[in-house]
């Protein structure tokens, strides 16, 4: 996927600063944030319209990020999901994430360049 291809993104995280930082990062990749949710209920509402291409679940979600992703994936199986988590070195967690429909997991300390590269990789598949 060329870097200039627009990806419509919904950010799911209760921390405004995380969302703002991710918005700035996404704008550098020429992606558009079409929604932002603070919890799982809002996240499910945000998938209705406009239909995003990618959901990014932040590391601060009080509910289980896996359960939110599983429900989103069940409702919209073609929607791509990227999860920020501190468990990227745990093979069992990564297997559960894949079963929940998550396309990729990134650690919270990911750089902007790494994030944009992973988005391109996820959207290319």
Describe the structure.
The protein is an alpha/beta fold. It has one domain (8-63, 71-124): Response regulator (Rossmann fold, 3-Layer(aba) Sandwich). The chain has helices at 16-28, 40-46, 65-75, 91-99, 112-124, and strands spanning 8-12, 32-37, 54-57, 80-84, 104-106. The protein has a five-stranded parallel sheet, with helices on both faces. Strand 3 (54-57), helix 3 (65-75) and strand 4 (80-84) form a beta-alpha-beta unit. The chain is globular, with a radius of gyration of 13 Å. It starts with 7 loop residues before the first strand and ends with a helix.
Please describe the structure with a list of short key phrases separated by commas or semicolons:
125 residues; alpha/beta; Rossmann fold; 5 strands; 42% helix; globular
> pLDDT below 50 for ≥5 consecutive residues: which ranges?
none
The fourth-level CATH homologous superfamily is Response regulator
Biggest β-sheet description? 5 strands, parallel
DSSP strand count = 5
Q: How are the secondary structure elements laid out?
A:
Layout lengths: L7 E5 L3 H13 L3 E6 L2 H7 L7 E4 L7 H11 L4 E5 L6 H9 L4 E3 L5 H13 L1
Parallel strand pairs: 1-2, 1-3, 3-4, 4-5
Helix pairs in contact: 1-5
In short:
This protein is of the alpha/beta class. It has a single domain, classed as Rossmann fold, CATH 3.40.50. Helix content is 42%, strand content 18%.
């Amino acid at each position: 996927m060329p870097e200039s291809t627009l990806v419509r993104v919904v950010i799911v995280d209760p921390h405004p600063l995380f969302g703002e930082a991710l918005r700035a990062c996404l704008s550098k990749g020429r992606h558009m944030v079409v929604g932002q949710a603070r919890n799982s209920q809002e996240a499910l509402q945000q998938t209705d319209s406009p239909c995003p291409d990618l959901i990014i679940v932040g590391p601060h979600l009080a509910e289980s990020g896996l359960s939110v992703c599983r429900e989103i994936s069940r409702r919209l199986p073609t929607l791509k999901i990227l999860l920020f988590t501190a468990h990227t070195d745990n093979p069992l967690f990564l297997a559960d994430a894949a079963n929940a429909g998550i396309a990729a997991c990134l650690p919270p300390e990911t750089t902007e360049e790494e994030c944009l590269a992973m988005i391109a990789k996820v959207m290319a598949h």
